[in-house]
Write a structure and sequence with these properties.
The protein is an alpha+beta fold. The protein folds into two domains: about 100 residues, Glutaredoxin (3-Layer(aba) Sandwich), CATH 3.40.30; about 110 residues, Glutathione S-transferase Yfyf (Class Pi), Chain A, domain 2. It is built from eight helices and four strands. Helix 1 runs parallel beside helix 3 and helix 4 packs antiparallel against helix 5.
Length: about 210
């Protein structure tokens, strides 16, 4: 069955790999799966056809036959459970990899997204300059903990897994802020993720969609 995902017709990041469809593309590439992309405009996100796939009017969505999924964590987990390459075969290692997926989305990503909100959406508020250091402190506290766990290891738990895919995707959002540069081990970890051929293909495909749109 053909796999179809949705992506921004024109991504806010201009194709820098930060849009969440990149995570799904990366997982599909790691699993060696062909897929098609249905570009959607910002207007189409709120129309009934798309809301039937994603009730919150966001991207990406995933369609395979009668199966329709939304939320990148759920989509990547589905891909990882159905195809080899993203989850270990050992039961305990498999559970740990899934734990790291949840950690990326539930523990690491919220304060990182809060930084985007503080700088872009709240930057003109009179209290934003007081709030920003607090947001940065929360991010650094999490990065301290993550860096301590990673240590000198290549990946979070032995071999590369869907947990690393999600964690690298989340950490990439920090690159523009410069905070990631304060953590050499995490910077190297992210670079290893970006160097994977599957990520390179996913990034190139997302960039191509944006540069070809008008």
């Amino acid at each position: 069955m053909t796999i179809t995902i949705t992506a921004f017709e024109r991504s806010p990041d201009g194709g820098k790999g930060l849009a969440r469809d990149t995570r799904v593309r990366w997982a599909l590439e790691e699993a060696g799966l062909a897929y098609e992309v249905r570009p959607v405009s910002f207007q189409a996100l709120k129309e009934p056809a798309h809301l039937a796939r994603h009730p919150f009017g966001q991207i990406p969505t995933y369609e395979e036959g009668d199966l329709v999924l939304f939320e990148t964590g759920a989509i990547v987990l589905h891909i990882a459970e159905q195809h080899a390459g993203l989850l270990p075969t050992d039961a305990h290692a498999r559970s740990r990899a899934i734990t790291w997926m949840f950690a990326a989305l539930s523990t690491m990503e919220p304060p990182i997204l809060d930084l985007v909100t503080a700088r872009i959406l709240e930057g003109d508020k009179p209290w934003s300059q007081e709030r920003l250091p607090l947001v940065m402190d929360r991010i650094r506290a999490r990065l301290d903990q993550l860096s301590s766990h990673l240590g000198n290891s290549e990946w979070l738990d032995a071999a590369f897994s869907a947990g690393d895919l999600m964690m690298v995707s989340v950490l990439l959002r920090l690159r523009a802020s410069g905070i990631l540069d304060e953590y050499p081990k995490l910077s190297a970890y992210v670079a290893r993720g970006e160097a994977r051929p599957a990520y390179q293909r996913a990034f190139a495909a997302q960039l191509a969609l944006n540069t070809s749109s008008s």
